[in-house]
Amino acid sequence: MTQPTTVAGVPLADSPLIITVAPNGAYKRASDHPAVPLTAAALAADAKACLDAGAAMMHMHVRDAEGRHSLDAQTYRDALAAVKQAVGDALLVQVTSEAAGIYKAAEQMAMVRELRPEAVSIGLREVAVPDIPESELAAFFAWIARERIMAQIILYDAADVQRWQSMRERGLVPPGAWSVLYVLGRYSAGQVSSPRDLLPFLQVADGTLPWAICAFGREENACVTAAAAFGGHVRVGFENNLFLRDGSLAAGNAALVAQAAQGGLTLGRPLASAADARRIYGEVR
Fold it and tell me: How many domains does the chain have?
């Protein structure tokens, strides 16, 4: 009898795949694609479409009145309320703390403290900086852990992975609802990621935390399917990629979610619900 494919001893069929949609990012504009959601109402509509396509989670950026990246807590509250009205608790919404060349680490951390979101993404390179004493960073991480905020740490290469793991080993990061996001490639013009970009991360990761990937360009779908095969979770959407796997322009974020869902199901992984995502990303480790 053929044995089921397993990851870390867990059959893929017992490992729900969390698909996160990143619908807009800090930089995309209507000139890039008319379906980029830039308002609370547009985010809410996209949330419903992506939920129907198989997403369990949304990675949310908000914009100011001029369409620029914003970390304004009230703007986040308005967008979160709109999404909740559209889909209830059926999507886990993760806000970004991204600097985008506008904010400093202290401002990013202050936003997280003021908003107290259910889930947040944090770029390690953006907060673990000389401007922030190590004791202050440790206090921030301790606060996140006490609040049981689901925090996804963004890592760009194997050195980032090793730095994060060292911080945990040294006690700067207490047990909490932590996960990591591996970024395959760089935010640069014409960037196209490859599934091979995942391997250096996996070679140094200690496997103690849930992980997901995001990727750039038309091979986004190949990258996320490869990650799903290795037991990871995935993030897709207009933030990093506008194109379907055949090279055609996607009609909307939901089309990219649907592709990711198809890949996961082909591998035999069930699609996670928001409840699954909260259980997996919310476990204290």
Answer: 1
